[in-house]
Every structure is written in structure tokens, then in C-alpha cells.
Design brief:
Layout: H1 10-18, H2 22-44, H3 47-64, H4 75-93, H5 120-123, H6 127-132, H7 136-147, H8 152-159, H9 163-190
InterPro entries: RNA_pol_sigma-70-like, RNA_pol_sigma-70_dom, RNA_pol_sigma70_r2, RNA_pol_sigma70_r4_t2, RNA_pol_sigma_r2, RNA_pol_sigma_r3/r4-like, WH-like_DNA-bd_sf
Keywords: Sigma factor, Transcription, Transcription regulation
Organism: Dyadobacter soli
């Protein structure tokens, strides 16, 4: 495939993915797999398991791309949630795992080759610092779910708030983070 010559805007890529375009899925894998693998590996801490989770994640993306909506976030965020949930599911299913808290450290520590579409600014982002700048009502559930591996239900129980409230606070916090992360990237692309 001459995938190195092809570039997609996110909306165009999603449209092609929804028509089951093989070249679009190859592009998706080529440009997103390294980033997702890095996150998965931080959670499962085993290269073979991480590769399995990555494959399962892409299968789920392929099967459920029709349910993706850009109104709920970027394609990468949607895929990241799928990969993260798959990784946590694998840990929970693995009876040999003694780890009780799943940690997902800063994005800057991920070791992978990013696709050409990613700005150098992405490498310098410190997720924990950005999250720490959020108001506590949004920061705390995000930290529980994304840094400590809690499910939404477990976070709701720990915080003694309804599940819908936790999900709403996380969604609002992620929207704020999205703006914080992607505004510098968009400004750099315009420059």
C-alpha cells in the first residue's frame, strides 16, 4: 500500500472506515497502533499480552466503527478508551495478576514511533499536569478511572455520587483536556 502518500483528515478517515475501506483501516493501524500499544503496555506490563490486546482493540474498532460519533470526542480518544478497557479486562481476567491498581503514567513516557500526522507537541504533553489543572469535581473521577484503573461504577461508589454524574464529570473534563491538548497542535499546524 502506498499509505505513506495518503493523508486523511479525521472526518474523511471516519467516513472511509464506515464503508469498510481496507486502505483506511491499514492507514488507521499504521498511524495509531504504536500510540495505542504504548498505552496498553503501560497497563498490562507484558509485551505479548499488549500485542493481543492491541489486536483485540483493532478488531473491536473495525466491528463497531459505525457507532463512533465525533460529537463525543476524537477518533483517537474513542480508540484509546477501547484499548484501555480491553487492557483492564485482560488484567482482571488474569488470575495470576497481583496488581490491584492499574497505573497509566504520563503520555510523555510512552516509547513508540508516532505517525507523521502527530505533532512534536504531542510528545511533550504531560497528561497528569493537564489533569491536575482541572477543577476537583472533574479531576478526581478522571484520575480514578484513567490513572488508577477504576471502572466508572467503582469511581461512582468511591466518590458516593451517581454513576451518571461520574460519567458526566469525566466527559466534561475530557472535553477540557481535548481543548488544552489539541489547541497547541492546531496552532502549530496553521503556523
Amino acid at each position: 500500500m502506498s499509505g505513506n502518500d495518503v493523508r486523511y483528515r479525521e472526518a474523511e478517515l471516519v467516513a472511509k472506515l464506515k464503508t469498510n475501506s481496507r486502505s483506511a483501516f491499514e492507514y488507521l493501524y499504521d498511524h495509531y497502533s504504536a500510540a495505542l500499544y504504548g498505552v496498553i503496555l503501560k497497563i498490562v506490563k507484558d509485551e505479548e499480552k499488549a500485542a493481543d490486546v492491541l489486536q483485540e482493540s483493532f478488531l473491536k474498532v473495525w466491528r463497531h466503527i459505525a457507532s463512533y460519533s465525533s460529537e463525543k470526542g476524537t477518533l483517537f480518544t474513542w480508540m484509546l478508551n477501547i484499548a484501555r478497557n480491553r487492557a483492564i479486562d485482560m488484567l482482571r481476567a488474569d488470575s495470576k495478576t497481583e496488581q490491584k491498581v492499574i497505573r497509566m503514567d504520563v503520555v510523555t513516557e510512552m516509547e513508540q514511533v508516532w505517525g507523521d500526522n502527530w505533532s512534536e507537541i504531542v510528545f511533550e504533553m504531560d497528561v497528569k499536569t493537564a489533569v491536575s489543572g482541572l477543577p476537583s469535581e472533574r479531576r478526581t473521577p478522571i484520575e480514578l478511572v484513567y490513572f488508577q484503573g477504576y471502572t466508572h461504577e467503582e469511581a461512582a461508589e468511591k466518590l458516593s455520587v451517581p454513576l451518571g454524574t461520574v460519567k458526566s464529570r469525566i466527559r466534561k473534563g475530557l472535553q477540557e483536556l481535548r481543548a488544552a491538548f489539541f489547541m497547541p497542535v492546531m496552532q502549530q499546524k496553521r503556523a
